[in-house]
Write a structure and sequence with these properties.
The complex is a heterodimer of chains A (about 325) and B (about 120). Chain A has 7 helices and 13 strands. Chain A has a single domain, classed as Metallo-dependent phosphatases (Purple Acid Phosphatase, chain A, domain 2), CATH 3.60.21. In chain A, the strands form 2 sheets. A 7-stranded mixed sheet of chain A has the order 2-1-13-12-3-4-5, sandwiched between helices. Chain A starts with 15 loop residues before the first helix and ends with a strand. By secondary structure, chain A is an alpha/beta fold. Chain B is an alpha/beta fold and about 120 residues long. Chain B contains 1 helix and 7 strands. Chain B has 2 domains: about 1-35; about 40-120, Immunoglobulin-like, CATH 2.60.40. The chains are: A alpha/beta (about 325), B alpha/beta (about 120). The interface of A and B includes residues 180, 182 and 284 of A.
Chain lengths: ~325, ~120
């Protein structure tokens, strides 16, 4: 592992140089390991291989996001094909994901046939279960009624819920409903109250993974890339030693460490979006056809017990 | 004869009054019709409403056209009007009959806001 970033990996501060390198590599085959709020980054070695044994955890799960089934414009005329490639990528992972999180925008227009196509495709994922949270594209016109009928049967409110897996507490949040004019994503009062109550009984040592569609940190408010009341939600999580937040929505990898909280956004399986402020709008970005699969991808995450560590690997569909 | 002339003049005068009344009425009708038929278009492009703010007279019908590759909506927070999700090239129209200021936004991307002032 000659490419471990060695600078400043003390347990109390952020390895800033490593973090920046990790940002630079993200999306092209980097591995970012979070330990007690400190992010360590590894690059693929000269042979393009990573020491998988070193990163093997007690269990692994995966994240896919922003499939936008139904989208057919220039940025990617066949989003079902790239979703299938993402599924192949998941099925080829060295450590099978015990479950998969889909962080929303399953569809482009909330149409029944789009949900059907997604469901049909996801049947081939080799995993125990798929958990969902809605994106704004999944709750158009009906306030999410159809979404919840399909994916939210055992959820609360607009579709939020939590579950425990091998000692890790997972929370799926909904921040795409009842949005206010001029605002960003929103969790709302009821969901915040539920969250406060949901984590109240947990031990401080319990690793927490929060997943939601729109980022729970403010990336670029001019494009709506943030959540108005995310600080309130995070205030309930201060007591925990390890909190990881997984989001989608922005169709690119970004990471940030803030105290005990590590934030991570995933690539889309459908089309890329521009870096913040680098285009007139955050709309679908057309890249040369041969580059498309290098900016789409999946994320796999392994949990390493005892070290409070989540190892997060972003893998593009091709070129990584 | 005198009486006849007076009657004719009176008639003419009355006609004139009627005619002018009809003209005034006709002009008002025409203007109302014009306002009723007034049509203004707002383009949704690059996650923004263009023009973002517009002043129109009462009776104007505004049509929003989505030119983005992404669905948007046109929603009045006080529920005066609300479109369904507009896919690329979809349109939504609403006729503003009463004077007032109408703010609206895209409920999918709430950073997108606009305003209609009706006079």
């Amino acid at each position: 592992m000659g490419n471990i970033i060695k600078e400043n990996l003390n347990p109390d501060s952020i390895d800033r140089r490593g973090f920046l390198k990790c940002m630079a590599w993200a999306g092209t085959g980097a591995l970012c390991v979070m330990q007690g709020g400190v992010l360590k980054s590894f690059a693929f070695g000269p042979g393009g291989k990573i020491d998988k044994a070193a990163m093997k955890g007690d269990f692994a799960f995966a994240q896919i996001s922003d499939s936008h089934i139904g989208f057919n414009k220039a940025a990617n005329p066949d989003v079902t094909a790239t979703l299938r490639e993402a599924i192949s990528k998941l099925n080829a992972l060295p450590q099978s994901p015990e479950f998969v999180l889909h962080t929303g925008d399953l569809t482009q227009l909330s149409k029944a046939e789009e949900f059907d196509t997604l469901d049909q495709s996801l049947k081939s994922v080799r995993t125990g279960r798929i958990f969902y949270v809605p994106g704004e594209h999944d709750v158009l016109n009906d306030n999410g009624v159809q979404y919840r009928e399909r994916y939210g049967k055992d959820t609360k409110g607009d579709g939020w819920y939590s579950f425990d897996h091998k000692g890790v507490h997972f929370v799926g949040l909904v921040n795409v409903m009842n949005l206010k004019a001029g605002g960003l994503g929103s969790l709302g009062h009821d969901q915040l109250e539920w969250l406060e109550d949901d984590v109240r009984h947990l031990k401080h040592s319990t690793p927490i993974v929060i997943f939601a569609h729109i980022p729970l940190w403010t990336i670029y408010p001019e494009w709506g890339w943030g959540t108005d009341d995310s600080q309130q939600a995070l205030s309930y999580l201060k007591k925990f030693g390890s909190v990881s937040v997984l989001n989608g929505h922005i169709h690119q990898v970004m990471q940030k460490v803030e105290g005990n909280v590590t934030f991570h956004t995933a690539m889309s399986t459908a089309f890329p979006q521009p870096a913040p402020g680098q285009a007139a709008s955050p709309g679908p970005m057309k890249v040369p056809d041969e580059k498309l699969r290098s900016v789409l991808g999946v994320t796999d995450i392994s949990f390493i017990r005892g070290k409070h560590t989540l190892a997060v690997v972003d893998s593009p569909l091709a070129g990584g | 004869m005198e009486r006849y002339i007076r009657n004719v003049l009176m008639c003419a005068g009355l006609l004139g009054v009627v005619a002018s009344a009809a003209m005034i009425h006709g002009t008002q009708l025409a203007r109302a019709a014009e306002e009723k038929n007034a049509a203004v278009s707002i383009t949704i492009d690059n996650f923004s409403f263009t023009p973002k703010e517009i002043t129109v007279s009462a009776g104007t019908t505004i049509t929003w056209v989505n030119r983005d590759d992404v669905p948007h909506t046109v929603v009045s927070p006080d529920k005066k009007f609300r479109s369904k999700a507009l896919d690329t090239d979809d349109q939504f129209s609403f006729t503003f009959t009463d004077a007032g200021t109408y703010s609206y936004f895209c409920s999918v991307h709430p950073v997108m806001t606009g305003k209609i002032i009706v006079k």
